[in-house]
Amino acid sequence: MALTINEECINCDVCEPQCPNDAIYMGPEIYIIDPEKCTECVGHHDEPQCMVVCPVDCIDPHPEWKETPDQLMAKFRELQSKKA
């Protein structure tokens, strides 16, 4: 499933550069994760890097965007093919 950033975000700027899919960007008030680009780092890392570096634990599973590990890997492959 994709991830989402909740209202606890302090805009510390550490998550955005860690995202290998460029899925994180600054929204009107807090950072936002684009669920169409978020693979929870599947294909890149063993765990979501944004969650690893977040100092306030404000990143949660997206409640409306549920995906299996196989679906996340398929999304990773599709995103990689668009970069080539």
UniProtKB/TrEMBL annotation:
<dbReference type="InterPro" id="IPR050157">
    <property type="entry name" value="PSI_iron-sulfur_center"/>
</dbReference>
<keyword id="KW-0479">Metal-binding</keyword>
<keyword id="KW-0411">Iron-sulfur</keyword>
<dbReference type="GO" id="GO:0005737">
    <property type="term" value="C:cytoplasm"/>
</dbReference>
<dbReference type="InterPro" id="IPR017896">
    <property type="entry name" value="4Fe4S_Fe-S-bd"/>
</dbReference>
<keyword id="KW-0249">Electron transport</keyword>
<keyword id="KW-0004">4Fe-4S</keyword>
<keyword id="KW-0408">Iron</keyword>
<feature type="domain" description="4Fe-4S ferredoxin-type">
    <location>
        <begin position="1"/>
        <end position="29"/>
    </location>
</feature>
<dbReference type="InterPro" id="IPR017900">
    <property type="entry name" value="4Fe4S_Fe_S_CS"/>
</dbReference>
<dbReference type="GO" id="GO:0046872">
    <property type="term" value="F:metal ion binding"/>
</dbReference>
<feature type="domain" description="4Fe-4S ferredoxin-type">
    <location>
        <begin position="31"/>
        <end position="64"/>
    </location>
</feature>
<protein>
    <submittedName>
        <fullName>YfhL family 4Fe-4S dicluster ferredoxin</fullName>
    </submittedName>
</protein>
<dbReference type="InterPro" id="IPR047927">
    <property type="entry name" value="YfhL-like"/>
</dbReference>
<dbReference type="GO" id="GO:0051539">
    <property type="term" value="F:4 iron, 4 sulfur cluster binding"/>
</dbReference>
<keyword id="KW-0813">Transport</keyword>
<dbReference type="Pfam" id="PF12838">
    <property type="entry name" value="Fer4_7"/>
</dbReference>
